[in-house]
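Please go through the sequence and fold tokens given here and tell me how the chain folds. Record follows.
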Amino acid sequence: MVKRSRKKNVASFFHRKLRSSRRTKLHPVVAPLPLSVAPETPTPSAGAKGAKKKAGSRLWMLFDRSGKSEVIELDKSAIIRRASIPARDLRILGPLFAHSSRIIVRDKALVVNLEFIKAIITADEVLLLDPLRNEVLPFVDQLRRQIFSNPPSKLDDSGNVDEVGRKMSSSVGKWLEDENDEDEHVLPFELQVLDIALEFVCSYLDSTVIDLARNAYPALDELTRNVSTKNLERVRSLKSNLTRLLARVQKVRDEIEHLLDNEDMYQFYLTRNQIQNQQYEALLTPATSKSMVYATNYVRLNSNVRRSSSHASFHLDDNNVEDLEMLLEAYFMQLEGSRNKILSMREYIDDTEDYVNFQLDNQRNELIKLQLVLNIFSFAMGVDSMITGLFGSRVVKNRTLVREIHNVRAQFIDLYYCSCSVCILVEGLLVFVTFIFKLYLMLFERFVFD
């Protein structure tokens, strides 16, 4: 028994050795590397991060109330946090709405998409998209020049609550009336920027209409004098440009008309809303050091301040809404004038079409008249050839006798055969010319005013 157990132990020992050797062959053990050459974990490079950031960011130019400007790169999340607008409002600034005109009003920002001007206007700053485009650069210069020439007053965000409380407790109504009188004839910052944008877009569209009219009227007059392929191509391109320009002017005009029909135009005054919110927060937050002193005044004047501030704000709303209405109506009338110019050019093009159609009808009538004359001439020549052929058949049989007796008649017969050949050639040429002219008229009618 002892021998068997020893044999089993020896066998199990060798079996374990064999299994361990197999394991080492199948899975070789790698010696640990020293700390100096230890493999580093793959980390994303800074270039990859920058590439990811640049993929979602766009180029913006920032203008503040004092006229300072800088070019920065911001992504959608940064724009949403900075301007406090929903993400869906940024879609109208994208390439899908490049040819649309929209002005969206939010609590703290105006989202403006007018032609090539795409901006987000707040009470303190303006964010202009793609400021390095050739169309946007003149607007950037004009915006910088006008903001520097007449900078709006800067808001005091760090106002002392004690001083506000003293002013409120002393003369709330007088303070609000003075503020109303001071800002009665001065547009706030956001409306100044909107005014500059509308002025630039309306002037650009008006100048485009004038340039198109300067090229359109001479081309139409030249077409009435000379109907050619070159003139037709010029008029066709001008008509297509006129249609596209009318659509652009109509979009901006409809958007301004939509704003004029809006009953909540007071929301455009972001600066006023910001001032009112700051005043209301100052009233709701009395001074910590002298809270006991102004507590009774605050409770007493809370209702009076609200009543007087609401009355002043209502009066301010009426004045400012009236100013905004006058501003929008002025640009609406300017766009209406540009639209009338385009419609007058379209009427002139329609008159030119009618005149050219009259010319075509006249040429068609002349062609029909010529074709009728040639048909009559060919019919007469055909009858003559038939009669001469009937008599010439007998003459040919006795041709030697005729030449001896009537040499003149033989010459006449030869002349007749030559005239018949010429008549056949003329008739064939007439058919060819008629076919070419009809083809030209068909192509002309399809090419001119489709």
